[in-house]
Design brief:
Fermitin family homolog 2 isoform X2, alpha+beta, globular, integrin binding, seven-stranded antiparallel sheet, PH-domain like, FERM_2, Ubiquitin-like (UB roll), FERM_central
Length: 685
C-alpha cells in the first residue's frame, strides 16, 4: 500500500486531486479510501482500470461539495482531521412521475435541484422545467409503520411499463447529466421555429421525433411512452394511495418540497431514494399540443390523481364529467397506440411541416373579419340578483339592475335609475371569485370576496342562465386581476366557461349503449371514494355514459386539454397551503399561495379571510433567525407570519418562484435565466 502526503496549506484541490487521478491511471493502483485530505491510500492491484472523472469530494460534516478545484483546502476551512468522501456525483434515484409510475434515473447529486430538474425534463422532452420540482414522498399518518420491504413492493407494482431505456445497453436506468453525451441539446426544444414533433390530434410522436432526443437514452427507446395515458387497472391501487382528509393534511404534504437552490446531497437525499417529480407552480406557459404531448399528458395525469385522491374539491356533476373524460381518454389511448403501430412507417416531410407551421405563425392564425371599436371598453348591463350575507339575517337575493364597467359593478334598484347614484358599488380589483353552479338545479351563482380595510366583504351574484353567467363570471375573473373586458382573453374566457358547463349537461334521452361497452367501465377507477360510497356502481356507470355523450366527439389531445382546463376552473385550483401563525394572531391559520396572490385562510373551513395580490406587492423579506416572512404591499399594508410546520424557505421560494414565472414572455429568449431564479428564491445565496 502506498501513501501520498500533501501540503494542506499550499496544495490546491486542482493539484491535489489530479495527483491521485494520475496514480489511479496506473493499472497497479486502486483508490481504497480517502479519510483525511492529507493522506491518500492506494492499494497495488492488477484490477481493471476505472474512470474516476465523475467523482468529487464531499464534506459530510459541512454538507457541502468541494467543486471549486482552484481553491486551496485551507480556503475551504479543512483541517488535517477532516473526513472527506470521494464519491460519484451521479447517483441512482427512483423517480415517481406525475402519472404515479416509477423510473430509475441517474441524477447529478452535486447540481442544485433546479438544475437537476431541468436536466431531467430535457431528457424526458418536457418543456418549461421551471414549473416542476422534486417532492419527498408523504407518509400516511393513518397507517402503521410498514417494513421497508413492504413499501418497496407497493412501489414495484407501479413501475412504468415500456422501454424507457436504450435497448441492448445492459442497464436499467436513464442517465441524466452532462457526462454521457450532449443529451440536452435537443434541436428545437426552446426554439420559436420548432418543427412539430407530435400529432396535434392524438398526441402521438411523428416520425422525426427521435431526432429531438439527441444522444438521450430515450432516442433509441420509446419516447412516446410518457405521452400515453395509462389507465388505472385496479381499484386496489387507488385504495392504497394516501388521501389527505383535511386542509391541514394537504398543508403537511407541502413540507416535502426540496430546496431548489441546494443540491440533493446537501438535503440528505440518499442513493436509490424515491422522490416525486411534480408540477410545483400552477402557471402553465405556452401549452402546445405540437410540442408538448408528454408535458400535457403528465399534467393531465397529475390533475387526474388530484381529483381521484380528493386533493381538490369538485361537485358531483363535475366529478361525473371528469370520469367521462377519463373514460374517453382511456379508450382513445388504446386506439391511438394500435393505430401508431400500424402506421409506424408513415413518413412526415419535416421541411413542409416547418413551412406550414411558420406560415400559420406569420399569418397569426384566423382573425375576425369584423373589428370592434378598439377605443371603447365593453360593458355589461342586466338584471342580476344580489345577496349580501350578514349575521342573523333571513333576507334572500334581491334583483338589481347591474352595470359592469371597467373593474366595477354598480347596482341600481331599476333600469330607469341607472343614470343616477347607484344603491351599491363595488370594485372587484383584487377580489376572490368563486363559482357555485349546479346544472341540474339551474343554479348559477358567483361568490365574491372583496377586500376592505377590515377584511373581506362577501357578495353573491345569481344569474338566470348559462349565457348570462358565462359573461359575468368571465368579467369578474378579469376584474379580479385588474383587467377589463377589453382584454383579448375575455371572449376566450367566456367560451371556456360555456364549454365547461356544456360538458356537465345530462342528456334526457341517452342513447342505448351496447352491453359490452358498459362492462368496459370500471367506476371504482374513475371517481373518488366519496361518490363510490354514495352511489352503486351501476348508477355511477349510467351517469358516466350520459356525461360521455358530451365529450364523445373529442380527439385524444383535445380531451386531455379540456380535462386540464376543467381542473383549472375549480375554485380550489392552484392554491398551495401552509400552516402559519400570523403576527398578532393567537391560533394557527393557513396561508394559501397562488400564482397571483396570497390568501389568509381559516384552517377549519378553508374560507378566505383576506387576499393580497402580487401586483400590489412592493417587496418581501425573511427574518431567518425567527423564521418570519414579511410581505409589504401598496398603501402601507404589511403582512407578517411564521410557518409553524415547514421551513419558511419553502414559502419564500413559492413567492419568488411565481414572481419569476410572471416574467416569462413568448417574444423573449426562451433559455432559462437560472441566476434570476436564484436571486428571487434563494434568500441568502
Amino acid at each position: 500500500m502506498g501513501r501520498i502526503q500533501g501540503n494542506r496549506q499550499q496544495r490546491s484541490l486542482w493539484k491535489a486531486v489530479p495527483t491521485a487521478y494520475q496514480l489511479l491511471k496506473h493499472p497497479a493502483c486502486k483508490l481504497l479510501q480517502m479519510g483525511h485530505v492529507s493522506a491518500v491510500f492506494l492499494q497495488h492491484s492488477a484490477d481493471v482500470k476505472k474512470d474516476w472523472s465523475d467523482h468529487a469530494l464531499w464534506w459530510e460534516k459541512k454538507k457541502t461539495w468541494l467543486l471549486k478545484t482552484h481553491w486551496t483546502l485551507d480556503k475551504y476551512g479543512i483541517q488535517a482531521d477532516a473526513k472527506l468522501q470521494f464519491t460519484p456525483q451521479h447517483k441512482l434515484l427512483r423517480l415517481q412521475l406525475p402519472n404515479m409510475k416509477y423510473v430509475k434515473v441517474k441524477v447529478n447529486f452535486s447540481d442544485r435541484v433546479f438544475k437537476a430538474v431541468s436536466d431531467i425534463c430535457k431528457t424526458f422532452n418536457i418543456r418549461h422545467p421551471e414549473e416542476l420540482s422534486l417532492l419527498r414522498k408523504p407518509r400516511d399518518p393513518t397507517k402503521k409503520k410498514k417494513k421497508k420491504l413492504d413499501d418497496q413492493c407497493e412501489d414495484e407494482a407501479l413501475e412504468l411499463e415500456g422501454p424507457l431505456i436504450t435497448p441492448g445497453s445492459g442497464t436499467d436506468v436513464l442517465y441524466i447529466g452532462p457526462v454521457k453525451g450532449n443529451i440536452y441539446s435537443s434541436p428545437g426544444l426552446y426554439s420559436k421555429t420548432m418543427t412539430p414533433t407530435y400529432d396535434s390530434h392524438d398526441g402521438s410522436p411523428l416520425s422525426p421525433t427521435s431526432a429531438w432526443f439527441g444522444d438521450s437514452a430515450l432516442s433509441e427507446g420509446n419516447p412516446g411512452i410518457l405521452a400515453v395515458s395509462q389507465p388505472i387497472t385496479s381499484p386496489e391501487i387507488l385504495a392504497k394511495m394516501y388521501k389527505p382528509q383535511a386542509l391541514l393534511d394537504k398543508a403537511k404534504i407541502n413540507q416535502g418540497w426540496l430546496d431548489s437552490s441546494r443540491s440533493l446531497m446537501e438535503q440528505e437525499v440518499k442513493e436509490n431514494e424515491a422522490l416525486l417529480l411534480r408540477f410545483k407552480y400552477y402557471s402553465f406557459f405556452d401549452l402546445n399540443p405540437k410540442y408538448d404531448a408528454i408535458r400535457i399528458n403528465q399534467l393531465y395525469e397529475q390533475s387526474k390523481w388530484a381529483i381521484l385522491l380528493e386533493e381538490i374539491e369538485c361537485t358531483e356533476e363535475e366529478m361525473m364529467m371528469f370520469a367521462a373524460l377519463q373514460y374517453h381518454i382511456n379508450k382513445l389511448s388504446i386506439m391511438s397506440s394500435e393505430n401508431h403501430l400500424n402506421n409506424s412507417d408513415k413518413e412526415v416531410d419535416e421541411v413542409d411541416a416547418a413551412l406550414s407551421d411558420l406560415e400559420i405563425t406569420l399569418e397569426g392564425g384566423k382573425t375576425s373579419t369584423v373589428l370592434g371599436d378598439i377605443t371603447s371598453i365593453p360593458e355589461l348591463a342586466d338584471y342580476i340578483k344580489v345577496f349580501k350575507p350578514k349575521k342573523l339575517t333571513l333576507k334572500g337575493y334581491k334583483p338589481y339592475w347591474c352595470t359592469f364597467k371597467d373593474t366595477s359593478i354598480s347596482c341600481y334598484k331599476s333600469k330607469e335609475e341607472s343614470n343616477g347614484t347607484p344603491a351599491h358599488q363595488m370594485n372587484l380589483r383584487g377580489c376572490e371569485v368563486t363559482p357555485d353552479v349546479n346544472i341540474s338545479g339551474q343554479k348559477f351563482n358567483i361568490k365574491l370576496l372583496i377586500p376592505v380595510a377590515e377584511g373581506m366583504n362577501e357578495i353573491w351574484l345569481r344569474c338566470d342562465n348559462e349565457k348570462q353567467y358565462a359573461h359575468w363570471m368571465a368579467a369578474c375573473r378579469l376584474a379580479s386581476k385588474g383587467k377589463t373586458m377589453a382584454d383579448s382573453s375575455y371572449n376566450l374566457e367566456v367560451q371556456n366557461i360555456l364549454s365547461f358547463l356544456k360538458m356537465q349537461h345530462l342528456n334526457p334521452d341517452p342513447q342505448l349503449m351496447p352491453e359490452q361497452i358498459t362492462t368496459d367501465i370500471n367506476p371504482e377507477c374513475l371517481v373518488s371514494p366519496r361518490y363510490l360510497k354514495k352511489y352503486k356502481n351501476k348508477q355511477i356507470t349510467a351517469r358516466i355514459l350520459e356525461a360521455h355523450q358530451n365529450v364523445a366527439q373529442m380527439s385524444l389531445i383535445e380531451a386531455k386539454m379540456r380535462f386540464i382546463q376543467a381542473w383549472q376552473s375549480l375554485p380550489e385550483f392552484g392554491i398551495t397551503h401552509f400552516i402559519a401563525r400570523f403576527q398578532g394572531g393567537k391560533k394557527e391559520e393557513l396561508i394559501g399561495i397562488a400564482y397571483n396572490r396570497l390568501i389568509r385562510m381559516d384552517a377549519s373551513t378553508g374560507d378566505a379571510i383576506k387576499t393580497w395580490r402580487f401586483s400590489n406587492m412592493k417587496q418581501w423579506n425573511v427574518n431567518w433567525e425567527i423564521k418570519m416572512v414579511t410581505v409589504e404591499f401598496a398603501d402601507d399594508v404589511r403582512v407578517s407570519f411564521i410557518c409553524t410546520e415547514v421551513d419558511c424557505k419553502v414559502v419564500h421560494e413559492f413567492i419568488g418562484g411565481y414572481i419569476f414565472l410572471s416574467t416569462r414572455a413568448k417574444d423573449q429568449n426562451e433559455s432559462l435565466d437560472e441566476e434570476m431564479f436564484y436571486k428571487l428564491t434563494s434568500g441568502w445565496v
